[in-house]
Amino acid sequence: MQLHSFFNSSTSYRVRIALALKELAYETLPVNIRVGEHRAEDYVANVNPSASVPALIDDDFRLGQSLAIIDYLDQKYPEPRLIPLEPALRARVLEFAALISCDIHPLNNLRVLRYLETELEVTPQQKSSWYRHWIAQGMAGAERMLERGNTGPWCFGAQPTLADMCLVPQVANALRMDCDLSPYPRSLAVFEHASKHPAFEAAQPQRQPDYIA
Amino acid sequence: MQLHSFFNSSTSYRVRIALALKELAYETLPVNIRVGEHRAEDYVANVNPSASVPALIDDDFRLGQSLAIIDYLDQKYPEPRLIPLEPALRARVLEFAALISCDIHPLNNLRVLRYLETELEVTPQQKSSWYRHWIAQGMAGAERMLERGNTGPWCFGAQPTLADMCLVPQVANALRMDCDLSPYPRSLAVFEHASKHPAFEAAQPQRQPDYIA
GO cellular-component terms in the record (chains A, B) (predicted)? Predict the structure, then answer.
C-alpha cells in the first residue's frame, strides 16, 4: 500500500493515524503541496482527480479524500473499527467528523490562506483573524458535541474513532497557529491523550519522511 | 420525523433529497439562517451543537451535519440505499461526496460570503471571483471523477446515490450565481437528469414551506 501524503497536511495526517491504528504497512509518496505538486498533470490525471492530498494506492485502486479513504480502510481492514457500527455512536462520530472536515478545516487550509494573501491581499492581521474566527466557531461546536457525549478518554468512549482522527490534526494545526484553545478543555484532553498513543505519535508531521523543520 | 431546514441551504437540500428518495414523511421546521436563527441559544444547546442547518429529529435522537444524517437514514431505512455497499462503488461515491462537501461548499456558503463582505470588506467583484474560483477548482475535480467512472444517468450508475445528493444542490447554487458550467458536461447531464426526478424535485428550494422568492 502507498500513501501520497504531505507531512503538514491535516487530511493526510488523518489517514496516517488510521493506517497506524490498523497496523497497515505503507510507503509514503511525498507530495509537496507548498510547491504545487498536487496539481501536477500526471498526479491529477492518474492518481487523484481532487488535485489534493492524501491519495491511497491499494493494489490498483487509487482513492482520494481522507474521509473516503478511512471508510474504505474500515471496510477492507475492519480491525480495529474506526467508524463504529452501533447506530447512535456511529451517527455521533460521523457528525463530529463532518464538523471538523466540512466546517473548520476547509476554511483554513493552505490554498485558502494563500488566496487571501495573493488575491485579496489581506494583511497578516486579517489572515490571523480569519483563521481564529473559524477555529473559534468550529471548536465551540466540537466542544458542545463532546459535552453532550464525551466520557473520555477519546472523543466518544474507550476506543479511538474517526472523530479523534479528525480532531487531533485540527487541534495540532490550531496550536501551531498559536490559537488559544483553553475554552475547549474536553477537546484538549482528547488531544493530550492521543499524543501519548503510539499510532497517533507515528502519524505526527515531524515523524514523516518528507518533514521540513 | 422532523427536519430543521432552510430552503436555500445546500446541506438541507441534500437531506431533503435523501428523505424524499426513501419516501420518509417529515415535518419541516424552518430555520432562517439569513437572520441567524441557527445560532439561537435553545437550538444550539438542545438541537444542533454545530449551529447550522440541517438537523434531523427522529424520535428523541437529534442529529446535525448532512453527511452524518444521510448515513444515519441509510442505516435505519436502507431502501433505497444511498451509500452503496459494494466497496469500490462505495469508495467512489464517498470520494465524490467529500469533494463537494469539503472542497467546494464550505468556501461558498452564506457565513463565508458574509465574512468576506463585512470583515474583509471585499468588493462585489472580489466576492464573485472568490465564488467562481472555488466552483471552477472543485467542479473540474468532480468532472474528472465522472470522466473516470460515470456511465450515467446518475453520477455512478443506474441509481441515485449520496454523490448525486451532493452534486445537485451544488450545481443549482452555482447556476443561481451565474457560473458558467459548460466545462462540466457530465455534471450538468446528471443535474438535468435529476431535475426530472420526483424526489429531487420535491427537495428543491422553491418547493419548501419556508421559500422566499
Answer: cytoplasm
Tell me the per-residue pLDDT of A100-109, one tens digit each, with 9 for 90 and over: 999 999 999 9
Q: Are strands B2-5 and B27-30 parallel, antiparallel or unpaired?
A: parallel
Q: Shortest CA distance to B147 belongs to which of B183, B113, B98?
A: B183
Residue tagged 465524490 (cell numbers): B96
- The predicted-structure confidence for A39-92, as pLDDT tens digits, reads as follows 999 999 999 999 999 999 999 999 999 999 999 999 999 999 999 999 999 999
Q: Cβ A102–B75 below 8 Å, yes or no?
A: no
**The predicted structure's pLDDT at residue B207:** 98
The full set of domains in chain A, from first to last, is: 2-80 (3.40.30.10), 87-199 (1.20.1050.10)
Contacts of A97 in chain B (CB under 8 A): 68
- In single-letter form, the type of residue at position A24 comes to L
Q: For A112, which of B76, B107, B141 is closest by C-beta distance?
A: B107
Q: Verify whether the Cβ–Cβ distance A61 to B148 is below 8 Å.
A: no
Q: Does the bond joining A80 to the residue before it have cis omega, within 30 degrees of 0? A: yes
- The stretches in chain B having pLDDT less than 50 are none
CB A31 within 8 A of CB A37: yes
Cβ contact (<8 Å) for A120 and B119? no
Q: Which chain B residue shows the shortest CA-CA distance from A138?
A: B50
Q: What is the DSSP string of A63-107?
A: EESHHHHHHHHHHHS-SS-SS-SSHHHHHHHHHHHHIIIIIIGGG
Subunit contact B87:A107, Cβ cutoff 8 A: no
